[in-house]
Amino acid sequence: MKRVRCLWVIGWLCLPLIALARPEPSPALVLEPAQQQWLDEHREMRVGLVLQAPYAQFDRRLQQFYGANVELVGAIAQALQLDLTWRGFPDQAALEHALQAGEIDFAPGLTQTPASLRLWLFSDPYMRIPQLVVGARSGAVAVELEKLAASERVAVRMPGPLADYLRGNYANLNLQGVPNEREALQLVLGGQASFAVLDEAQLSRLSRESEFADLAVVGDIGLPQLLRVGSRRDWPMLAEVLERALQAMPAKTLEQLHQRWLQPKYPRFSESAGFWQNLALLFGLLLLCALATLVWQRRQQRALERALLAARESLVARQVREEALRLSQFSLDQSTLGILWVNWDSHVRYANHAVEGMLGFAEGALLERPLADIEPNLSMDRWLELWRRARAGEGGDQQFETQCRRADGSALPVELSLSFLRFRDAEYLVVFVADITERRRALAALRESEARLKGIAGNVPGLVFRLERDPAEGDPEFPYISEGSTALVGYTPAEIQHPDMGLRNLVHPEDRADYHRVQDLALAGDRDWSWQGRILTRDGIGRWADIKATTRRLADGRMVWDGVVWDITQGKQAELALAASQEQLRELSAHLESVREEEKARIAREVHDELGQMLTVLKLEVSMCELAYAELDPGLNERLASMKRLIAQLFQLVRDVATALRPPILDAGIASAIEWQGRRFEARTQIPCLVQVPDNLPSLSDAKATGLFRILQEALTNVMRHAKAHTVQIILEHEQQMLRMTVIDDGAGFAVDAARPTSFGLVGVRERVLMLGGSMSLDSEPGEGTSLSVAIPLQ
């Protein structure tokens, strides 16, 4: 009976709770046909969220959004059966920029402003977030902002619409701006501000922290923040559908959403503070009774945790040491260097795989063997001496080369290194065994190569050298000079390698400056160098030498020049003799050309003067006969007329021969002669010829004028015979102390490098230019015409 009565009482007390827990009937979501049709065509929507706790946040670990606005949109999507794509933005500006770019369709949690109406279509408010006044819990009273004194500071986030509202409606407030709501509450806790004003959502987020447990809500400024759902303006049907979904959402759902995310966790000032004091007194007794038990349990728990932590650290350290030991053992076993651990009695206690394979023993066959079985020359007395030195840390022969006996009895050249080791209260001498067979083979090959190099260098008919320069010191030196130096200059290699000697002091004094210039440039630029000149032997005999050196960089950074000094005395003497002979031939050719031109001038004068006079007398005699006897015989008159025509042709032939031998126009100057030759060439070939000559040319010697004129004749002859040109240009220029003549045609051209063994025209032109002390340049390409330029000195 008592149990039934108790159950009845409990049920009677729970009736109000059951009534409260009963779900409120929600209005059915009914859409108009046009709205339903539009929704069926737009099931996929893009939602934009401003990431601000507690409205919307992103969990990077779970890769999902959560918060009050997220749950609201989730309920709308479930009611409308939407497929959502979420995007988070750091602030309202980024969200509106994405809307303008067409990247989102709607966004929850927006506040309607005149500026935002140009971008969004807003729903009716679905949540009201009050702006609260927060103060200290102890001694707090209800606060009215109009009655606050000027000495009481009010912390508020600036800049922002809340601060603008307080500044515009409460002129008496002493506002203190802070960057965020957390600092506003911290100023109240620290006594630097009396109150803080912030919205209920931020207070809900911060009130969960124990730091702000001593704060309470002491007032409401009467300016709620109305949260709406904004949608894109070009989809008005979407705004209507969202409005219907919000209207169909139960009020209980929105209230639960507000309590779960936005309701502060500590009571408002409007709730009874005495209730919490009584509740604290009620639980105080229980706390006092459980305090001793709790302290004892904490002490036991901490002691147990410390013991467990110490055991865990010890276990981890042991595992680390074991792992390091296994790695060390594995490294020793797999090392390519042979390792032996030998006790003081010279018996092997450990041998790795490398030394077993090196000596040809099976695995474990070396253990407990005396070291003398491996190295017969290592007697016990010598072993004990090595043990003593290694134990005392002395040097000496702790690293040496010897030969070990392999399992098959063959000898193996090795290098032994000894190191003393204490391990687990025992002493060992670690013997490192390195196979040096390849090293000795390479050393023997190197010695053979050096001997071969010395033999080759010693038989070279000259001097082979090597020049090195250290980058740190910078001074070059000769680490190697071949034995051929004695035969070449009479000095031994050691004498030339002396720092005060070198190759520089072998050079003839007159050529030493040029040699220093070439070698210094090569050393400064780290490049190859070559030089020809005279050197002096020990006896003072001069010889011609050709020095060539190539450079390379060693691995340590040093620069090396490998070179050879050849004796080219005979070849150089033959070359100088040939050059002298060529010079004599050129002088002879010039002399013959001068004689020929003088003979041509003499013959031209004689032909012009002697033959001209005779022809003139003959023409007078014929004319006298014609006057005296022409009327007597008509046939005689015809014969005399024929004779006069022959005499006239002979006059023209004499003038042509005299002009060909030496044009009289040369006496008028080279400029007039060039113009005359151009007009004559144009008349003979019908090829337009443009002549450009300067005024007031300085005087030119007769030999140079004649030579330049002959060069022009040869050039125009080549144009006429081979060029097939349409135009020719002759340019005469005065350049300082030089006179330059250029002949340009637009003919067929030719390859300048092509060999033409039967053509001596250009060879003759080049020789004439050299005889005149000038220079010639020829530029031509097939199909591009030809340009011949000649420059001769005026003096």
Explain what this protein looks like in three dimensions:
The protein is α+β, with helices and mostly antiparallel strands and about 800 residues long. It has 6 domains: about 130 residues, D-Maltodextrin-Binding Protein, domain 2, CATH 3.40.190.10; about 90 residues, Periplasmic binding protein-like II (D-Maltodextrin-Binding Protein, domain 2, 3-Layer(aba) Sandwich); about 50 residues; about 100 residues, Beta-Lactamase, CATH 3.30.450.20; about 130 residues, 2-Layer Sandwich (Beta-Lactamase); about 130 residues, Heat Shock Protein 90 (2-Layer Sandwich). It is about 45% helix and about 25% strand. It has a 5-stranded mixed beta sheet with strand order 10-9-11-8-12, sandwiched between helices. Strands 15-14-18-17-16 form a 5-stranded antiparallel beta sheet. Strands 20-19-23-22-21 form a 5-stranded antiparallel beta sheet, sandwiched between helices. Helix 19 runs parallel beside helix 20. It is flat and about 180 Å long. The N terminus is likely disordered.
Helices and strands, with pairings:
Elements: H1 2-21, H2 33-41, E1 44-50, E2 57-59, E3 64-66, H3 68-80, E4 83-89, H4 92-100, E5 106-110, E6 120-122, E7 127-129, E8 131-136, E9 153-157, H5 161-169, E10 174-178, H6 181-189, E11 195-199, H7 200-206, E12 215-220, E13 225-232, H8 236-248, H9 251-261, H10 273-334, E14 338-342, E15 348-351, H11 353-359, H12 380-392, E16 399-405, E17 411-423, E18 426-435, H13 437-459, E19 462-469, E20 476-481, H14 484-489, H15 493-497, H16 512-525, E21 529-536, E22 542-553, E23 559-567, H17 569-629, H18 634-661, H19 670-685, E24 689-692, H20 702-723, E25 728-735, E26 738-745, H21 761-771, E27 775-780, E28 786-793
Helix pairs in contact: 2-8, 17-18, 17-21, 19-20, 20-21
